Amino acid sequence: MRLTGRDVWGWARPSRAPGIISRVATTSDTSAPPDSRSGWRRVRVTSIEVLCAVLLIAILGQSWLQQLFDVPALRTGSTVFVAVCVQALPFLVLGVLISGAIAAFVPARVLQKVLPRREGAAVGVAGLAGIALPGCECASVPVARRLMGQGVAPAAALTFLLAAPAVNPVVLVATAVAFPGKPEMVLARFAGSLATAMVMGWLWARWGKLSWITERALRRMPDVESGARWTTFLETARTDLVEAGGFLVLGALISSAMGVLVPHRWFGVLGDQLVLGVLVMAVLAVVLALCSEADAFVAASLTALPLLPKLVFLVVGPAIDIKLFALQAGTFGKSFALRFAPVTFVVAITCGVASGALLLGGLSYAGGVK
Amino acid sequence: MRRETQNVLLILLGGALLKIAINGDYLRYVKPSQQPWVIVGGAVMAGLGVVAIIGDLLAARSAAMADGPPAKHTEHVAEDGHHHPARSAWLLMVPVLAVFLVAPPALGADSVTRTDSRAPQSAATMDAAAFPPLPAGEVVPLPVSAFVSRAGWDGNGTLNGRRISLSGFVVHTQGGTLLARMVISCCAADAYPVTVRLTGGAADRFNSDAWIEVTGKVVPGTATKANSYTPDFTLDSIRPVPTPKDPYEY
Questions:
Q1: Which of A5, A69, B48, B181 is spaced 20 to 30 A from A261 at the CA atom?
Q2: What residues pair up with A163 in beta bridges, in sequence order?
Q3: Residue ranges of the domains in chain B?
Q4: Which of A82, A218, A233, A314 to substitute to test the interface with B, most B CBs within 10 Å?
Q5: pLDDT tens digits, residue range B36-49?
Q6: CB-based contact B92 A249, cutoff 8 Å
Q7: Do B78 and A7 touch (CB under 8 A)?
Q8: Band of residue B119 on the pLDDT scale cut at 50, 70, 90
Q9: Of residues B8, B37, B59, nearest to A51 (C-beta)
C-alpha cells in the first residue's frame, strides 16, 4: 500500500525544513500568510496521520486484539517478544549514547592516533578493547558503526563488534556463576570468542570489500565545532536509535516466533552424539537469540549435554544470532550481512571447538557426560 | 518516515518501558534487577524524542521570526540524517501496541508443555555438601527450584519425611497434574520450567494456570533424568492463591 508522496516512508531532504515551518505557522500563528494555507488544498497523507490512524484503530479494536492473542502459543510468543524488547532496548540505548558521544566528542584524528596504523595490529587492539564495553550485543552494533564512520579501519571495528558482547567482565562473571567449579569453561569461552572476533577481523582485512558496506554507514562525520557538540550528540543518538530500534524489534519478532516453533526437545536428545550436538546447539544459539549475559545459565541447565556443545552455544550466540543479523543488515546493509553472518557462524563454531579441545581437556573428556 | 513521527514513536516506546517498569508489570518479562535499566532506558529514549521536538520547534520559530535561512541547528541535523527511507522505524510500533494494548501475561502452562523441564542450573555440579539440612519447623516453605534440585540431587535425603509448602501454577499433562514454576536468568526468553507431580487427584479440579499453594511430602527417589526431574509430591493440603506480582524464580 503506497500512499501519496515520499513523506510517509521517508522524506526528501529539501522539502523537510519548509514542511516544519509551515506546520508550525499554521498551528501557532492564527493570521497565517495565505500561501501556507495552500498546503491544505491537496490532502497529503503523511506518516503522522498514518501513525494516528494506526493508534486509533488499535485502541478501538483493543478487545478484538486481546481476543486474537488469547491462543496459548500466541500468548507465549508475545510474552517472549516483549521480554526480548524490554531486555534489549536499554542496552541499545546505551549503545547509541556511546555512539553519539564518539561522534560528538572524539575527533577522528584522536582515534587514528590511538589505534596502530597496521590493520592487523589494530584488529588485536580492538579485540581487547571489547573487554571494556559491559553490555549485550545490541549495544555494540551502533558503536562499531560509529567507529567506522570516524575512520577506524572496518576490520578493527568489526572485531570490536564481535568481541565486545562476548568477552566483557559481566558476561564472564555470569559464565563463572553458571558453571561453578569449572573455571576452564570461563577461560574457554573467553579464548573462543576472542579468537572468533580476531579471525573475522583478519579475514576482513584480507578479503573484505568496502563496497559491501552501505555507503550510509561509512559516511564520515565532519569534525564538530565545539558549539554544536551537544546537538550532535543528541541528534546522532536519536537517529541511531530510530534506525537500529526497528531492526531490533524485527529480530525480536523472528526469534520469539522461532522460540515457539522450534521444539525444545531438541535440547534433550543430543547427549551422546557430539557432532550433531555441536551443530544443533550452534543453530539454537542463532535461532533463540539469547542475551549474552543469560546464555550461560541456559547452557548450564542442559544437564544431559556434554561441555563442548555448551561451549559452542556460548561462543556462537554473542557472535551471530537472528537479532544481531537484523541489526547488522539494518546498520551495514543487506549485502554485508549476507556475507558476514554465515562466515561468522562457521568461524565461531570452529573457534569454539578448537578452544574446547585445547582448554576443556581434549575431546574425549569434553565428550563425556557430566 | 517524517522526523516528527519518529520522535512521537520514541516517546511512545520510552513511555511504554517507563510504564511497565514503574507499575511492576516488567516482572512478567525480565528479572527484578533489570528495573533500573528499563527505567533509565525508557527515560532516555523518551527524552531524546522530546528534546528533538523542542529543538525543531525552536529552530522553526527562530527561522520564521528571522524570515531568513533555517537556523544552524536544523541545517546540521539535516546533513546528519536521512535521505534514505527509514521504513524500519515503523516496527517500533509493534512493542508499543504490544505493551499498551495486549499486555502479554507472564509465561504459564503453555511454556511448560512446550519445554522439557530441567533440574535448576548448577544443581548437577553440586554434591551432597551443597544441601544443608532444612530449617526446623512444622512446615518448611521452599522455592520450587530448590525443592526440585534437592529431590533430584541430594544424596543425604534432607527432604525425606519433611512437610514442605510450595507455590506455583497448575499444568495438566498426560502424566498427571503438575505444579510448575518458570525459572529465568535474564528475561522470559531464557525461561525453563521446574515441575512437581501432584499425586492423589486433589489438584485435578483446578484449571491450568491457576495459582495454588500446596503442602505435603516428597516421594523419595522419584525425580530422575527419565522424567526430567519431576518429583512426586503427596498432598496434605491445597488452596488457591492470587497470582503473585513476581511470577518467576531466579
A1: B181
A2: none
A3: 3-102, 109-240
A4: A82
A5: 999 999 999 999 99
A6: yes
A7: no
A8: low
A9: B8
pLDDT band at residue A30 using 50, 70 and 90 as cut-offs? very low
Chain B residue whose CA is closest to A90: B41
Q: Is there a contact between A73 and A262 (Cβ–Cβ < 8 Å)?
A: no
Q: Which B residues, 135 through 194, put their C-beta within 8 Å of a C-beta on chain A?
A: 183, 185-190, 192
Q: Supply the pLDDT for residue A343.
A: 95
Q: Does B24 touch chain A (CB under 8 A)?
A: no
Residue appearing with cell numbers 499425586: B199
Smallest CA–CA distance, residue A279 to chain B, in Å, is 20
Say whether B164 sits in a helix, a strand or coil. Answer: strand
Is the CB of A21 less than 8 angstroms away from the CB of B98?
A: no
CATH number listed for the domain at residues B109-240: 2.40.50
Q: What is the 3-state secondary structure (H, E, C) of chain B?
A: CCHHHHHHHHHHHHHHHHHHHHHCHHHHCECHHHHHHHHHHHHHHHHHHHHHHHHHHHHHHHHHHHCCCCCHHHHHHHHHCCCCCCHHHHHHHHHHHHHHHHCCCCCCHHHHHHCCCCCCCCHHHCCHHHCCCCCCCCEEECCHHHHHHHHHHCCCCCCCCCEEEEEEEEEEECCEEEEEEEECCCEHHHCEEEEEEEECCCCCCCCCCCEEEEEEEECCCCCCCCCCCCCEEEEEEEEECCCCCCCCEC
Contacts A182 to B, Cβ<8 Å: 125
Q: Quick one: which H or E segment has residue B139?
A: strand B139-141
DSSP H helices, A4-151, are 16-28, 34-37, 47-60, 62-68, 72-105, 108-114, 119-129, 137-149
The residue behind cell 556462537 is A316
Q: Would you tell me how many other CB atoms lie within 10 Å of the CB of residue B210?
A: 16
| pLDDT, tens only, B59-78 | 899 888 876 554 444 434 44
Q: Which of A59, A221, A249 sits opposite B91 (nearest CB)?
A: A249
Give the 3-state secondary structure of residue A162: helix
pTM score of the predicted model: 0.80
